[in-house]
């Protein structure tokens, strides 16, 4: 599983906005948002009210309501986020970013269909480490605060299962915990 090289620069922003952690991005059908700094997740809900994570996005990614046909559709800031507005008239200049968005969505979709759950969790952690990670002495640090519940929502399992499997991975030497972050030891 690979994530492509960083996106090429987009046109000069028309305007920028800063959003706080946990803030929802306002719905706009006429623009996309380029993430300059920070991380967001996109999600919806099932008919039963279950949260369904659609993706995790970071610096240089493009997100927005026009990229989805899912309704309801929300974009939530996972950190403080700085975003540039990209109006419809400039979307043609963001084709590479939109292709990367599709590729990352498909990678995540392939992960959530893996079996057993332990494989699904491990591949999701690798995906996170490639997207939001950085090399450290012990392996690859996932530099994003994500709860066991949020992980469970992505991989369609329970928080208890995620906690149990993370403990198992830690006992097997596959990961370490560092200040509420995870380090994947086998990723070099």
Automatic annotation (TrEMBL):
InterPro entries: cNMP-bd_dom_sf, HTH_CRP, WH-like_DNA-bd_sf, WH_DNA-bd_sf. One of its GO terms (molecular function) is DNA binding. It comes from the Bacteria. Keywords: DNA-binding, Transcription, Transcription regulation. CDD domains: HTH_CRP. Residues 115-188 form the HTH crp-type domain. The keyword Transcription applies. Gene3D superfamilies: Winged helix-like DNA-binding domain superfamily/Winged helix DNA-binding domain. GO terms for biological process: regulation of DNA-templated transcription. The keyword Signal does not apply. This is Replication/maintenance protein. It comes from Chroogloeocystis siderophila 5.2 s.c.1.
């Amino acid at each position: 599983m690979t994530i492509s090289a960083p996106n090429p620069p987009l046109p000069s922003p028309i305007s920028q906005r800063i959003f706080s952690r946990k803030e929802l991005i306002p719905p706009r059908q006429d623009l996309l948002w380029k993430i300059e700094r920070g991380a967001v997740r996109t999600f919806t809900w099932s008919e039963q009210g279950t949260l369904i994570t659609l993706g995790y996005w970071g610096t240089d990614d493009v997100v927005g309501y026009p990229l989805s046909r899912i309704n309801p559709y929300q974009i939530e800031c996972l950190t403080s986020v700085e975003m540039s507005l990209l109006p419809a008239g400039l979307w043609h200049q963001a084709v590479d970013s939109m292709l990367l968005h599709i590729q990352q969505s498909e990678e995540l979709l392939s992960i959530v269909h893996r079996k057993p759950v332990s494989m699904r969790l491990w591949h999701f952690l690798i995906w996170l480490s490639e997207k939001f990670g950085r090399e450290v002495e012990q392996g690859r640090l996932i530099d994003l605060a994500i709860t066991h519940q949020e992980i469970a929502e992505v991989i369609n399992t329970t928080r208890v299962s995620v906690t149990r499997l993370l403990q198992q991975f830690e006992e097997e030497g596959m990961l370490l915990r560092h200040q509420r972050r995870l380090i994947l030891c086998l990723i070099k």
